[in-house]
Design brief:
Length: 209
């Protein structure tokens, strides 16, 4: 028998934000949190926090995958997301408005998508930020000047691009077949991209607060 997801999609709205490294997932998520009342969960940020958490048994494993631009085993990432969602729901339990989650950088591999929807929550939409590699490359190199991230260097970036094409794009295509994808051209300024996102969300009946 299929497991029942931990959270019902009647009560909890999940929107995935996907796109290559440097497409602007984190940047645009900040806008959406401010204007739409989403709670933002970044899979990459949760993994980086777990990597340095004292006592974590996954630190070395996560460090290896992040540097190599490969995908951390889904059990680790899905548990981090599920627990973060539970903590937010617990904090907000007195609020009448239904919870909206923006999950950025996840699912990056098809097994993660299936496992999450079977055990945590079925998603409502996928916001896909479409961006050419040369634009993402120049953004990441610029970010690398100050980010302190282990993977904002040219070798890791090349590997991340390969993983994105080979492993993460099939996820986008599968959600596309289900009619769940909003695709937005992510070139140009942050403001231009955000205007496009707002227009697309409106057309899908998702309104700002
Ligand atoms: O999304 P972000 O660029 O912060 O992700 C950084 C790295 O974290 C990825 O390159 C990958 O190694 C890891 N990651 C993962 N699974 C996810 C999200 C991120 O393994 N769903
Ligand atoms: Mg990010």
């Amino acid at each position: 028998m299929a497991p029942t997801p931990r959270f019902s999609s009647d009560k909890v709205t999940v929107v995935f934000v996907l796109g290559g490294p440097g497409a602007g997932k984190g940047t645009q998520s900040e806008n959406l949190v401010r204007d739409y009342g989403f709670s933002h969960l970044s899979a990459g940020d949760l993994l980086r926090a777990e990597q340095v958490r004292e006592g974590s048994e996954y630190g070395e494993l996560i460090r290896h995958h992040i540097r190599e631009g490969t995908i951390v085993p889904m059990e680790v990432t899905v548990a981090l997301l599920s627990n973060a969602m539970a903590a937010i729901l617990e904090q907000n339990s007195s609020k009448a408005t239904p919870a909206r989650f923006l999950i950025d950088g996840f699912p990056r591999q098809i097994d993660q998508a299936h496992f999450f929807e079977e055990t945590v929550c079925v998603s409502k939409l996928v916001l896909f930020l479409s961006c050419p590699e040369e634009v993402m490359l120049s953004r990441l190199l610029k970010r690398g000047e100050t980010s302190g991230r282990d993977d904002d260097n040219i070798e890791s970036i090349r590997k991340r691009f390969r993983t994105f094409e080979q492993t993460s794009m099939p996820v986008v295509r599968e959600f596309e077949e289900k009619g769940k994808v909003i695709s937005v051209e992510a070139t140009g300024s942050k403001e231009e991209v955000y205007e496009r996102i707002k227009a697309e969300l409106k057309s899908k009946g998702v309104d700002a607060l």
